[in-house]
Structure of Phosphoserine aminotransferase:
Amino acid sequence: MTRVFNFSAGPAALPEPVLQQAAAEMSDWRGSGMSVMEMSHRGKEFMSILAETKALLIELLNIPANYKVLFMQGGALGQNAILPMNLLRGRNSADYVHTGEWSKKSIEEAGKYCRVRVAATAEASRFTHVPPQGSWDIDPHAAYVHICSNETIGGVEYHWTPDTGDVPLVADMSSNILSKPVDVSRYGLIYAGAQKNIGPAGLTLVIVREDLLGSALPITPQVFDYQHLAANDSMINTPPTYAIYIAGLVFQWIKDQGGLEGMARLNQAKAGLLYDTLDASGFYTSPVAREDRSRMNVPFRLPDPALDAEFLKGAEARGMVQLKGHRVVGGMRASIYNAVPMAAVQALVAYMKEFEAKHG
Amino acid sequence: MTRVFNFSAGPAALPEPVLQQAAAEMSDWRGSGMSVMEMSHRGKEFMSILAETKALLIELLNIPANYKVLFMQGGALGQNAILPMNLLRGRNSADYVHTGEWSKKSIEEAGKYCRVRVAATAEASRFTHVPPQGSWDIDPHAAYVHICSNETIGGVEYHWTPDTGDVPLVADMSSNILSKPVDVSRYGLIYAGAQKNIGPAGLTLVIVREDLLGSALPITPQVFDYQHLAANDSMINTPPTYAIYIAGLVFQWIKDQGGLEGMARLNQAKAGLLYDTLDASGFYTSPVAREDRSRMNVPFRLPDPALDAEFLKGAEARGMVQLKGHRVVGGMRASIYNAVPMAAVQALVAYMKEFEAKHG
């Protein structure tokens, strides 16, 4: 078996020990005689998995006691609708900060349920920076202020936490959750699709401050009513049990790596090596403002798009896959989430230098 | 490794060869160097898995060309809301047939989006039968007529296909899909949560006639808009990729067992053995009308509820789990979906006789 270096933007690489444990436990989870996939979600075995997974997440993110953790289905795109369904609290508008493709999707979807104000936008720089706090125009009556903490496509990341005063801050953290310590108490709500740093696609985490619950619009499907989910510990219906189990294994792996401080150090080292390589090169370029560059998704360009196909082909021949950039941005993109090892970035950097020497 | 006989109502037993193949392919799917969980949903590997899974389902159910197959998230309870969001087509009411707990949930949820008429109900028999077609009062202007083809909790199943004239018939088939041949052309829409006969929880199948698409309510989240999903082959966002992969393995296993005819024979034999045992006994009783008994979920009662705990304890000691009935019905329930082997039913029947001999 040869494992590739997988730079996919999501679903993305998982830690090898997690996959090995999942394989070993597939037909018989710890002497239960069942696969986790086969377990009644209300049986003692799965209830223990859910409780342990939740406890690990609370520990890793140091989630305060006045927050609820929900395990949901539907993905982050689904949450873009479910969020305003639940969080308007009788108000008729919400503020959004536009930093790229994912915040754009959030803005479009929210418009079905409320008036959407764009409090700040990076459009002028073609979404290559995060609008500085000073440029934000927050409506004090807004139900919340929404940000995308890491734009997976554009490769732009917040390295600071916005101050939105009394208006709750909401963050789509799908592509950088668990990559560094976060002060959860600064947020009203955090959501994240699982398929980057958490586990398999089909699971979405929501972490929400209790006082914001209880005002879902009447049209909210009951399985997407945060308050109803919180009251039933995410068990209104059958949750995505196997995805929750894998998430628990990933959380344990993160803990074993030194928790979020450990992940932050590793991610900084990986991203640093890649950006240093880009900056030292007269060949590759990064489109993103230096202070807002993502540690998770690194878009870069070759001097001539005509070289892209050859670059990708050579990478694949060396066991490096999914380096093609998103069509909106073009060029290349290396997604280097938690589970992408330093060895993958070292291999990529070595190949980039080799390719530059040949074509530079 | 000792596998138990798992009578869970869902998530439920999966075929052992499927689990073995999943374990073997966990870290490296067919030489790709990746787990299926790690694959970009838009990469060639996963695209081939999705296409193969869909083709197998179309083959097994003989789905006509004018139907769309959608792989969705959210579960059947989510579909109870998503269905009226999509299928009202400018009408303001829908008809529902009330046969137990699951149709009750469907009725309650639909009430958020339209007027709900109960076209027939089995309430008079405490939901132990399917109301005969002659008793149905269908509104010819209804957007659709909804049935639950198998009530998982009550153990009541349709062994006939209702004739609803020009009003599209919609069926929640979560707990009996793929257990026998079905004439899909008699239905406007079929939906089914995966965690009984399809695969892991977190995936929901929708099979919908094309002419019913395109009229979603403006409040429909884009990820739950059938037309939008159909136009994008279920890939608006990241689908639950690993659950789809396992579903594909299960579909192949069903095909290898002789397809739905093969499954129907096996299920008839399993259910027949269990019901014959109940009927021949003066000890155990089945609460369900003989002609409407489910081949998937078999509730039964001991003569005295005080014996229930001992029965369950003895079953567990013999490697048989999840036989406790749902609290709404009480007593016992053996769920004997496709993947529950004949050997499990034989072991259960032997134990039931042993227990009867001791306590009868």
Observations:
- The mean pLDDT of chain B is 97.
- Residues 17-256 of chain B form a domain with the Aspartate Aminotransferase; domain 2 fold (CATH 3.40.640.10).
